[in-house]
Amino acid sequence: MTYLITIALIMGIALIGIGVDRLYRAFAQSHPQLGPFRESNKGCGSCTGSSTCSSGSCSSHSD
Description:
Layout: H1 2-30
């Protein structure tokens, strides 16, 4: 029984994480006036995605 509860909890946590990510992406897409948002597939999780992760600046983002 403990095994099934553990599997259900892990699956639930994973699904909640996916849901939060989708909500974040929808919010970022519907509010472009707030500036560039962090993209998860860019290095260090920064909005610039460049190799200068220590700068912490998103103002130089130009796509």
